[in-house]
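Lecture 7, part 2: worked example. A protein chain together with acetyl coenzyme *A.
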Amino acid sequence: MNIFAKSLLSKSQSGQRMFASVVRNKLEAKIVEQQKVFSAFKKEHGNTKIGEITVGSVCGGMRGMAGILYETSKLHPIQGINYREKDLYEIKEQAPRAEGGREPLPEGVLWLLLTGEFPNEQELKEFQSELYQRGHLSKDEERLIQAFPKDMHPMTQFSMGVMACQPNSKYAKAYRDGVHKSKYWETTLEDALDVCAKVPRIAGLVFNNSYGHGKPMPDQDPSLDYSANYARYLGIEDKNFSELMRLYLVLHAYIYFIFINFISDHEGGNVSAHATHLVGSTLADPYLSFAAGMNGLAGPLHGLANQECLRFLLDFQTKYGTKWTEHDIRDYVRDTLASGKVVPGYGHAVLRQTDPRFMCELEFANHYIHDDNLVNLVKACYRVIPDALAQTGKVSNPWPNVDAGSGALLMHYGLNQFDYYTVLFGVSRALGVMSAQVWSRALGLPIERPNSLTLNHLMKKVKNEL
Ligand SMILES: CC(=O)SCCNC(=O)CCNC(=O)[C@H](O)C(C)(C)COP(=O)(O)OP(=O)(O)OC[C@H]1O[C@@H](n2cnc3c(N)ncnc32)[C@H](O)[C@@H]1OP(=O)(O)O
Ligand SMILES: O=C([O-])CC(=O)C(=O)O
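Predicted complex, written out as structure tokens:
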């Protein structure tokens, strides 16, 4: 593939350098249509009830409460995630792929999340070229990221790296210049595409900073696509690893989608999407919003669980060696629970079945990886842990989530710096949450501001005293 780009740069009326985005026209027509649908629907059904709020929801992290309008994906408790009404298997089957590759291209998935359709061949080619151009960081931005302390957690560096690029927000400038609110989505799209294009480079710089031992950072290679360039920044040129990265980015957006492709989006209620959405609702620009989402992703019950999960597996191997048995796994889980810790990679706030993203990881492993003790341990855990968790009688969903398998796959390909894994997730998640932000501004969604209650108020409400 040759994605040498013709220059897409032009100047906007306000003098900013803007791209004539390939996806913009397609999106504009859809936005105009959806704005009409949305406004008529709101008018007709503004007072229609769709559920009830219980004390359990208020005290239980709003579990089960639908309260966010989020356009790009929807999670089903049993079937898992749908991007624009397509499940992961349909995405895997229908998405454009690299020549000779099996996994979806993140660029195609990003286009799907934004527009609801996959790009045709020509659109994809131009979009890849556009993202390539948008993916450059200035020397100052690169220098700033390279100056972060090497022992700072990679997720802290990643979030700060995104913030280092924020002064170039086109949305923030347009807002300062007084742009009309009906046009917010246009510069939000500009920034959203810039963020998606830049995050592999930011994440690559973080990797190089933390683990590069002073090696020079490779430049973007115009002959490579999004995932392959990212894999190159990580110093991994194995062809199958680029395949894995593609998959990961689409899942965590996700590799991370399965990896790149399937972790990209997981409806709007998960912490990273919701934090991005919440901050965006103040009309903060996409860089500020995305960094907020990444700070949420860095929590151990959310994105950091993949690093925690690998630690769990490696600690197990330290204790039991490589000749472990399923009985050892049962004991280890029992000890983990008894010490008041969660078993990372298992459970979910919405899913009530094995996460299909985990199934994609398993399929990937079955196809590409043979005789890897750690991967075999992941498979054995899947046979043992759900029962062990179910026996506690309190875990709503004892099945594995996406984080249960990702670390072992990455480790297999030599990416053993597991403090870094959540950064991969973040690269992937950009595709989903940034696409959603374009739609939030296009639909003119208001600032989020739910009510809160003190325990005293809640008790009075239950007694009808308030
Ligand atoms: C990409 C992602 O973010 S996927 C999720 C990644 N996170 C993890 O894998 C961490 C391990 N899992 C968990 O902590 C939880 O299952 C969560 C955070 C994902 C979901 O939380 P909830 O919706 O509150 O789960 P649930 O309703 O099952 O919780 C009920 C009880 O079971 C416990 N529980 C749930 N999952 C687990 C687990 N994997 N190991 C041990 N206990 C668990 C909860 O801690 C809670 O205990 P408590 O009543 O003593 O406080
Ligand atoms: O949906 C959730 O709460 C967590 C999750 O799996 C994700 O964000 O990918």
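The domain at 20-38+60-298+423-466 is CATH 1.10.580.10 (Citrate Synthase; domain 1). Residues 184-211 form the longest helix (28 residues). Keep this in mind for problem set question 3.
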